[in-house]
Amino acid sequence: MLRMLSGLVLGLVVSWSALAATPEDLRKAAAVDGARISKADSEPGNWLSNGRTYSEQRFSPLKAINASNVGTLGLAWANDMDSTRGLEATPIVIDGVMYLTGTWSIVHAVDARTGKTLWTFDPEVPGQWARYACCDVVNRGVAVWEGKVYVGTLDGRLIALDAGTGKPIWSVDTIDGKAPYTITGAPRVVKGKVIIGNGGAELGVRGFITAYDATTGKQAWRFYTVPGDPAKPFEHPEMAAAAKTWKGGEWWKIGGGGTAWDGMAYDPDLNLLYVGTGNGSPWIRYLRSPGGGDNLYLSSILAIDPDTGRLKWHYQTTPGDTWDFTATQPIMLADMKIDGRDRKVLMQAPKNGFFYVLDRATGEVVSAKPYIGMNWATGFDMKTGRPIENPEMNFKDGKMKVIKPSPAGGHNWHPMSFSPDTGLVYIPIHEISFPYSYDTHHSYKQVPGWWNLGIDMDHLTDLTAYADPDKLSGYLLAWDPVKQEARWTVEYPGARNGGTLATAGNLVFMGAADGTFSAFNATTGERVWTVQTGLGIIAPPVSYELDGEQYVAVMAGYGGGVIAGAYDPASAISKYLNEGKLLTFKVGGGPVPKPTVRDNTIPEPPPMTASAETVAHGAKAFTKVCGFCHGFGAVSSLVAPDLRHISNETRDNLEEIVLHGALAGRGMPNFSDMLNADDVAAIRAYLIKRTHDLRDKTLPPTN
Ligand code: CA
Description:
It is built from nine helices and 39 strands. The chain is an alpha+beta fold.
């Protein structure tokens, strides 16, 4: 009794001081350094860095929530994120304070007991920058280090904030003002250096990773991931080796790609920083490097010395990538016994569909096996350490091929987790096919800052054919990395589900596009708890402990990448408005309030008076410019509104919106450099046609 009472009193005192939350308290809570992150297991109640530990296993040692009580899990508190687009961040939780990002790179500090906002920092990213973001105006979180909070902004800045007040201390332009880069990934801090990459390979940029001094913002080093203009000197020695693998072509005119936009991990013992790199720019290798070659360091895992920025080893997952098969997916480090040997491994399930186990000291391939069905490769050659490409799926002759996986990958950025207890990796999988083609009229003279993939865009007008709900499949896969085989799977009604969290309570937590948030028995895959939130979840959950109570938190808000299947009838967004929230659960919590029910009424469109020629012109212009966010075929359940549902008034104002930026502040950019009034009139006619198609039910409705 005495014990209970003192615990209660202590709890009350801590709660009171957290509520007081002076800037000094908050700075103290943010006193994270390398020693603390390296010993993260000694403070299991906190979530100190993106993947909780430098090894990025996303495993919580907490077990107060387990099979005996998970059934009573309910809402502890919710925080309205004032967002209607994708929420992807991993919250950092330290001593009762939660630091996270919403859309538009906005940073929030939240009281982890109550959900009360302590401060918010809005970097005021220009709405126009939305057009450079391939995959929504998302952000995957902050890093916290020695009293500062670091965020990479969509428009390429890295900003250090005072953890006490949310006020900027320093800000650097990591992209030197050059469009169309974006930052959506979370920074990591290693040995006093903030590491950040960027995205943009779909629109044409040259990838690089940069390290900045965490105190001053001064640049420590920069590693380019692909060679630049051959007429200019190499920036660092690794570029000489890379340049030998690029043959012909003029890739440097649109950057070459290789952007490092997400996955990183760090091994303090080996002092190696691991960074994943992305696809080529353009996608198609026959254009990018017509003489062949592997095109280093596209789609690769780089092991970098964080002190010097020099490359220690590299492993290329997809040599000569031509499918957008990035290796930016989450990187995870673990120690395990394989074939009787204790191995220090690095694991990744990149887009290309192979699960890789590498020796993280040397980059040697320990094993590689397909984790999904695929047809781009027929197997893996352990002698060469390369996938075996399927010659039947080659599209160099210009003929379109339907290939699996799609540019969405077998697994994308949605984090996987690893339980040292079960030895299993929990991966959110999607199986989607995509019509790969080759634009034989491709030009490097792209519209500056616009998509330049090298694929034949005409196939995308009809993308809905490949986004058939029957061909969209998503599931949770429990993968044994030692045996390289599936242990169990849990099917979901749609693709594009959330990241996973494994806990010592023998549970795996995962949200989904259909709005469910669930817990599974980590050994068997049995679903032991589920709640319908009404919000499509793509973000990964985290777990933390305060005053002896374990919590599980997840951001809920649908969005992210659109290409390769915009339409998902199983998504919660087809029933509810995408009113993004941060949701936190505990044993004995309450119900989750649902978002506003979506009005799926289709306004009576005007009669179709435009000629078939005008509608066809509108379809083409829509595909080239609008489809990336509003869905190809004007069928959308992601990112930006389904334009078949807009009011007649909005459709009549299309010119103001598209050519004069009337909604730029809300993230609908001005496209007057790409479209003229005739194009907009044709797009309007096309949208009227698509609204009629929907009313006539020639396409699946969104409700
Ligand atoms: Ca890409």
